[in-house]
Recover the amino acids of this structure.
């Protein structure tokens, strides 16, 4: 029963409330029982909300504040010492065959103490040590001189054509502009600090407008790349999707990512789903299997689905540790055990034996039934109210597990399906870091520019391309174009 708290709210002091409750206890004891029960329900809801953190719910780690939960890794100890293992190639600095400069250290007097003259002694060999260092930072200025001559036929002055992109008496070249875009898009450095860095390294304090102009040029140069990536993802067999809030122009927008192991696409829209899906025209064309976190709007798409089991594990942790649900820990252990067994089978040959898979499915269904027995859903009496009936956290999770069993266990039946949606979450992480650095994007256009460039950099890195060189190529009119989606 819901109590109209506006009628018994505190109006002056705690004594007034105590007096009101004492009077109610004498006149209407049943009413007081309802108030106590409602208070208990509200207190439990508040305690449940306060007990949520990034380790047992979908809340981001940034919401934990200074009371972060102790880390709990799902990885098993490998019993190996930390550091590189035997046979690991490592990345030790190795000498090169052709150094840029050679400094010969000549031997005149014997250093052993006898003082003998060694200048005329024959050379036995050289001992070499190489020092890797940065050269003095300086911009290289190339001057283009176009010949001007007199046409013998028309009598007019004519000049040679300047190279493409050379449009002003003094301008920055594609490599320097690529450097500015790299600092902004890859390293997430604010505009003012980019200007300071250029002044310190090159003696050229570029303006913020110059950096923004380079970013705008890169954005326009990557229009074809974005179209290609969307087409490839739409035909991919497996794709990951996720979304997160982003402050743009003083209001909440939604950053969406759709990614594969070799492709990354970002989109920014005012709406989280529905209208944005239609406008971007990517997921509406996707026909493979989409890995996501069970957002209801994804089920309107005409594709197969798979859930991020990492989200389910966090919910099970909360049900076990906070709400003390007896079925939650066995379900947590089952999903992890199945995941490890599937990974072991994939490393050897492929999917596990059909009999074993059926046994795991039966165990999964038995735990779901146990959960419903512990959390029975009561049929409401009286006229049915509009909207979905209210359920507890345990009931909501159990309903999802029962209704979307094939999506939860997709990783068991299809070896291509990953256990979690970490691919999309990793691609979102740096965009959230950028928001923490800047606080917000000033304009929607600027946010979309940043998203397209970030998608290009992410895709280039996934394909093991040199990110800086691909930026130079993009600003020179030759952006990297992926050819397939993995």
């Amino acid at each position: 029963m819901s109590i109209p708290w506006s009628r018994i709210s505190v109006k002056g002091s705690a004594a007034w409330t105590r007096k009101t409750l004492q009077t109610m206890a004498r006149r209407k004891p049943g009413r007081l029982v309802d108030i106590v029960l409602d208070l208990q329900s509200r207190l439990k809801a508040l305690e449940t909300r306060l007990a949520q953190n990034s380790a047992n719910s979908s809340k981001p780690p940034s919401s934990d504040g200074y009371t972060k939960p102790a880390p709990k890794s799902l990885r098993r100890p490998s019993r190996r010492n930390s550091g590189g293992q035997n046979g690991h190639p490592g990345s030790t600095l190795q000498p090169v065959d052709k150094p840029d400069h050679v400094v010969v250290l000549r031997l005149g007097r014997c250093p052993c103490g006898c003082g003998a003259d060694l200048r005329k002694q024959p050379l036995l060999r050289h001992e070499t040590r190489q020092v890797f260092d940065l050269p003095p930072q300086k911009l290289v200025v190339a001057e283009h001189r176009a010949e001007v001559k007199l046409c013998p036929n028309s009598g007019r002055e004519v000049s040679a054509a300047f190279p493409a992109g050379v449009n002003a008496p003094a301008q920055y070249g594609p490599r320097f502009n690529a450097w500015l875009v790299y600092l902004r898009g890859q390293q997430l450095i604010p505009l003012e600090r980019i200007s300071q860095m250029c002044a310190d390294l090159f003696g050229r304090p570029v303006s913020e407008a110059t950096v923004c102009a380079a970013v705008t040029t890169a954005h326009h140069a990557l229009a074809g790349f974005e179209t290609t990536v969307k087409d490839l993802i739409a035909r991919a067999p497996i794709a990951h999707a996720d979304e997160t809030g982003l402050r743009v122009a003083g209001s909440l927008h939604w950053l969406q990512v759709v990614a594969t192991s070799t492709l990354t696409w970002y989109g920014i829209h005012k709406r989280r789903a529905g209208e944005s899906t239609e406008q971007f025209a990517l997921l509406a064309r996707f026909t493979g299997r989409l890995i996501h976190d069970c957002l209801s709007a994804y089920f309107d798409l005409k594709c197969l689905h798979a859930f991020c089991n990492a989200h389910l594990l966090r919910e099970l942790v909360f049900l076990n540790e906070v709400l003390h649900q007896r079925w939650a820990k066995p379900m947590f252990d089952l999903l992890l055990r199945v995941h490890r067994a599937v990974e072991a089978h994939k490393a050897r040959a492929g999917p596990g034996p059909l009999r074993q898979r059926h046994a795991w499915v039966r165990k999964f269904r038995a735990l779901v039934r146990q959960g419903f027995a512990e959390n029975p859903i009561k049929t409401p009496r009286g006229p049915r109210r509009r909207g979905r009936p209210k359920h507890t956290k345990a009931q909501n999770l159990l309903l999802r597990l029962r209704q979307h069993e094939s999506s939860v266990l997709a990783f068991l039946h299809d070896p291509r399906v990953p256990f979690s949606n970490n691919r999309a979450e990793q691609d979102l992480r740096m965009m959230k870091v950028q928001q923490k650095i800047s606080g917000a994007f000033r304009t929607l256009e600027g946010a979309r520019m940043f998203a397209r460039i970030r998608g290009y950099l992410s895709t280039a890195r996934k394909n093991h391309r040199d990110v800086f060189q691909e930026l130079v190529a993009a600003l020179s009119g030759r952006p990297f174009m992926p050819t397939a989606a993995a």
Summary: Residues 313-375+391-413 form one domain.
